[in-house]
Each structure stands twice: as structure tokens, then as C-alpha cells.
Amino acid sequence: MKKRLERAFLAILVGLFIFQLASFRGQLSSQEYPAKRQISDYLSSFLSRSTQPLGLKEDQKLRQLLYQAPVKWVIRASPRHILN
């Protein structure tokens, strides 16, 4: 008889604990922030665009000239500067 009471009491305590835990989770879900909407304004789409135009190929010789060392640039451009 005493073991039955202990088991019943233990079952009630476990049931109350599970009920309390379930109600606690329900409270957390009600306090969560709403899902963020996607920002679709003009500025965000403008900043995410790439600067590479579609269909145009880069001129590799021009890119080499732009990235060469300043000394080489001066040596190559100095004759034109003197003639002007």
C-alpha cells in the first residue's frame, strides 16, 4: 500500500513537471520576435549589384597597364609627356 502511494505521488510529480515544462515552452514561443521580412528597397538592391556589365569582356592588356607598377607607368608615359 505504501509503495502504491509513493508511485502515485511520483507519477503526479512527474506529470506536474512535464505540464510545467510544456507551459514554459509555450511562454517562450509567444515571446519570440516575428520573422524578418526581406528588405526590398531600392538602395539595398543597388548596393548588391555587381559592377561587371553582362556580355562585355575585359581588355586584358588594359588591365595589365592599370595594375603595373608606377615606375613602369612613368617610363612608358614620359615620352608622350615630353612631346606635349
Structural class: mainly alpha
Overall residue-averaged pLDDT value: 73
- Apparent shape: rod-shaped
Strand content: under 5%
Percentage of residues in helical conformation: 55-70%
Number of helices: 4
The profile of the biggest β sheet is:
none
Radius of gyration: 37 Å
Low-confidence stretches: none
Termini separation comes to 114 Å
**How many runs of DSSP E, i.e. beta strands?**
0
Order of helices and strands: HHHH
In short:
The protein has helices spanning 2-31, 42-47, 60-66, 70-83. The protein is an all-alpha fold. 0% of the residues are buried.
How would you portray this structure in words?
This protein has a domain at 1-29. The protein has 84 residues and is mainly alpha-helical. The chain has four helices and no strands. The mean pLDDT is 73. It has helices at residues 2-31, 42-47, 60-66, 70-83.
Secondary structure: elements and pairs:
Elements: H1 2-31, H2 42-47, H3 60-66, H4 70-83
Task: From the structure above, extract its key features.
4 helices; mainly alpha; 84 residues
